[in-house]
Amino acid sequence: MSRRLNWQDVPDRPSPKHPYRDSALAYLALAVLVVLVAWLTGGSIGRALVWGVFAFVIATGWSWWRWHKRLEAERRRGR
What we know:
mainly alpha
């Protein structure tokens, strides 16, 4: 017997206390990981730094924009 997931019944999770900071820290950790992997494998640290910073800026900007939209929608709904 198979069951189907009904997406309408899935409750919204509450927003974290510090969504912007949490996102920035998560993407910073990933950027550091990119540089660390390059260093451990003998790759170019300069190129890894450029790609790490690029990924951090793009990912953080995207998540901040999405958090802004979500928090604004929550404010409008009166949460």
